[in-house]
Automatic annotation (TrEMBL):
Lineage per the UniProt record: Bacteria, Pseudomonadati, Pseudomonadota, Gammaproteobacteria, Oceanospirillales
GO molecular function: ADP-heptose-lipopolysaccharide heptosyltransferase activity
Organism: Franzmannia pantelleriensis
Alphabetized UniProt keyword annotations: Glycosyltransferase, Transferase
Biological process terms in GO annotation: lipopolysaccharide core region biosynthetic process
Domain of life of the organism encoding this protein: Bacteria
Entry keyword Oxidoreductase: no
Protein name per the record: ADP-heptose:LPS heptosyltransferase
GO cellular component terms, semicolon-separated: cytosol
Record-linked Pfam families: Glyco_transf_9
Record-linked InterPro entries: Glyco_trans_9, LPS_LOS_Heptosyltrfase
Length: 357
């Protein structure tokens, strides 16, 4: 569809926090780009997520945010960069006073953000969402903001659907072949990736719980999968501990070798048939790839399975959390792991096993 001739064309989208938060912005980015291909989308992101921003098919350019603690010179350089880009609109998916003030000083004419806290004063368009109530997924809140911006531009928002990281079949096959050769894996068996790390923020199962879960899945699944453990910076020891525990249960488990970059690591997840993890960045990367996922969440209102739901197709995702209650909301030992194993094994059995060609 074509936008009016006088519609803004250059849009700055800000999501400058953690990996999982950034991946949950991809549906909103897809909405903007699919609405009108002539819209030029620039993402303002931290250096950590920049490699994935550069891989995102919905982003045309990337600007690095030096962060709140950067020296004044770096902040001035960022401001000049925004001014020289002459953006027509700014969409801030998670607003902070610094970013709001930055957009105001850059004189971006249309600035839209959630109507939260006093940072909203720097925006001339706001959308009331009340995210703290966790009434819908984070990616749905982001989509609402993208749709509101498009309507301000006189463009009808399109309907978008997963996968939000649509890798071509050849790339996925190459990732699977590469890992099969490295670890001597059977291409006809299902591959379950398990990420036991927490990324320093998310509550997750411990190694003993994951080992019991995996052993129970193995007992109930029709096919015996390869168990492949992934890990991030500082998490290798935890992954090794879990790998040993899985071996003691008689499971075929190996560590996925580290990759050269975050982008390589993320793209390598495309080799999985199913990914199991806490509510961390890898879980949400898998969601964007439309892989099957099983996520483990606390029951806190700010961290519920609904709020941090993966953005893959509904039939390809499972979520588990403790029963509600103040005393147990973060007690992951209260999750019924046997029920989780039954549901995960049933999902695994439904998945098509690649031919290995």
């Amino acid at each position: 569809m074509t936008a009016p001739q006088d519609a803004p064309r250059r849009i700055l989208v800000v999501r400058n926090d953690k990996l999982g938060d950034f991946m949950l912005a991809w549906p909103a980015l897809a909405c903007l780009k699919q609405a009108n291909a002539v819209l030029h989308i620039t993402a303002l992101v931290p250096a950590y997520t920049a490699p994935l921003a550069e891989a995102c098919p919905w982003i045309d350019a990337v600007i690095l945010d030096p962060g709140d603690d950067a020296p004044r010179q770096a902040q001035r350089e960022l401001l000049e960069q925004l001014r020289s880009a002459r953006f027509d609109a700014m969409l801030t998916l998670f607003s902070t006073p610094r970013i709001g003030w930055l957009g105001f000083r850059a004189k971006i004419p249309l600035r839209l953000a959630p109507a939260t806290k006093w940072a909203q004063l720097f925006y001339n368009h706001r959308l009331t969402q009340r995210r703290s109530r966790s009434l819908q997924p984070e990616y749905a809140y982001n989509l609402e903001l993208a749709e509101a911006l498009l309507k301000r531009l006189g463009i009808t928002p399109p309907r978008v659907a997963p996968p939000y990281w649509p890798l071509d079949a050849a790339t996925c096959a190459n990732e699977r072949r590469r890992l099969a050769q490295t670890l001597d894996l059977d291409l006809t068996r299902p591959w379950v990736f398990l990420h036991p790390g927490s990324g320093g923020s998310a509550v997750n199962l411990d190694s003993a719980q994951y080992a019991r879960l995996a052993a129970d899945i193995e007992r109930h699944a029709q096919c015996s999968p390869h168990w492949l453990l992934t890990f991030g910076p500082g998490e290798q020891q935890a992954a090794e501990t879990l790998c040993e525990a899985l071996g003691e249960h008689g499971l075929d488990a190996q560590l996925v070798p580290p990759r050269a970059s975050l982008r390589d690591f993320a793209q390598g997840l495309a080799a999985a048939d199913l990914l199991i993890a806490g509510s961390t960045g890898p879980l949400h990367v898998a969601g964007c790839l439309n892989l099957a996922t099983a996520g483990f969440y606390p029951a806190k209102r700010s961290s519920t399975p609904l709020r941090w739901q993966t953005c893959n197709a509904a039939e390809r995702r499972l979520a588990f959390s403790p029963p509600p209650g103040k005393e147990s909301e973060s007690d992951m030992s209260r999750i019924d792991l046997h029920d989780a194993a039954l549901r995960i094994s049933a999902l695994l059995d439904r998945l098509a096993v690649p031919s290995g060609s």
